[in-house]
Amino acid sequence: MVMLASKYFEQGTVELCAGDPSQVIPLLQVVQEKTGYVAEDAIGEIGEITGAAPSDIYGVITFYKQFRLQPPGRFVIKLCDGTACHVMGSVTLLNVIVDELKLETGDTTKDGLFTISPVACLGCCSLAPVIMISEETYGGLTPQKVRKILKDYQRRGKPLPKNKLTGEIPETA
Fold first, then answer.
1. What are the two backbone dihedrals, phi and then psi, of residue 172, each rounded to the nearest 5 degrees?
2. Distance of CA 43 to the CA centre of its chain
3. CATH of residue 106
4. In the prediction, which pLDDT does 29 show?
């Protein structure tokens, strides 16, 4: 049976993917692209569309690093851990970020301001070590420079207001 209405997918997509469990990953990618993470109700919709069990869908989400189960922070910190950055101290920078923001790798700060996401390479090897916050790239970093950058973002970035009913951060905030 094909769903009549979907919060995340157009009717054509629903019809195209109906009853096909091989479409779980593409549908997860659509949700992730639209919302920044995969909400619990999206897992239910994908299950209804494809016929895949929610536990199987959850297994896919937790297996692949590209999927998130929580909304990302206002500022996503991508820390390069490519060869050049690794050799130039990216692990030290990661430790500084985790310590300064009091979070774990892949987590979001309690105030919803930052998410840390180590990446394989940002393509800025001549600037190593490098981080990218939102679309801003910072290179030639030291622990002191990273602390200063984080403090600057903390000063100018206030946590986004969350919807009191859903706990989600509105896109227009």
1. -85, -5
2. 17
3. 3.40.30.10
4. 96
